[in-house]
Write a structure and sequence with these properties.
There is one protein chain. The protein has one domain (10-138): Rieske Iron-sulfur Protein (3-layer Sandwich). The chain is built from one helix and twelve strands. It has one helix spanning 10-15; strands spanning 29-32, 35-39, 52-55, 64-68, 74-78, 89-92, 97-100, 107-109, 114-116, 125-126, 128-131, 134-138. The strands form three sheets. A four-stranded antiparallel sheet has the order 1-2-12-11, with no helix packed on it. It has a four-stranded antiparallel sheet with strand order 3-4-5-10, with no helix packed on it. The longest helix is centred in the N-terminal third of the chain and has 6 residues, at 10-15.
Length: 141
């Protein structure tokens, strides 16, 4: 597989600044009893295939990256690189991959499997189902 890299400047990579935004509408999602529910009508950041958002705080047990894949499906990951563990992930447009925001560029497929870089393990992918205009993500810790 030919791996492509997200275009980032060295400052962004050294500081580990993710390219993926948080949703502007802070009441567009909720978490309860292991279920993360996202109202797609309130998250324009996920409308287009190839887009993504990162969700943090508000009772979530860990940071989550949600990707609207190029094929129209949705994927969700624990937003933590498996290499050093503190860096975030970003989708790489047109590649069906997510990549660590750091200098080392560990890269994973949309199932969470490591395909490039120094990370020794896969990342955690969570089951996602779409019900009408909602995404339901089961977070298992």
């Amino acid at each position: 597989m030919d791996v492509k890299f997200l275009r980032r400047n060295i400052f962004q990579r050294i500081c580990g600044i993710p390219a993926t935004p948080k949703p502007e509408n802070t009441v567009s999602w909720s978490y309860s009893n292991g279920q993360l529910t996202i109202d797609l009508g309130k998250v324009p950041e996920l409308r287009s295939p190839g887009s993504a958002v990162r969700l943090e705080g508000a009772g979530l047990p860990e940071r989550i990256l949600v990707v609207h894949a190029e094929d129209g499906s949705f994927c969700a990951f624990r937003n933590r690189c498996a290499h050093l563990g503190h860096r975030r992930l970003d989708p790489v447009p047109g590649t069906h991959t997510v990549q660590c925001c750091s200098v080392n560029k560990s890269t994973y497929d949309l199932s969470g499997n490591r395909i490039y870089g120094p990370a020794k393990h896969s990342i955690t992918a969570y089951p996602v189902r779409k019900e009408s205009d909602k995404l339901i993500i089961t977070i298992h810790i």
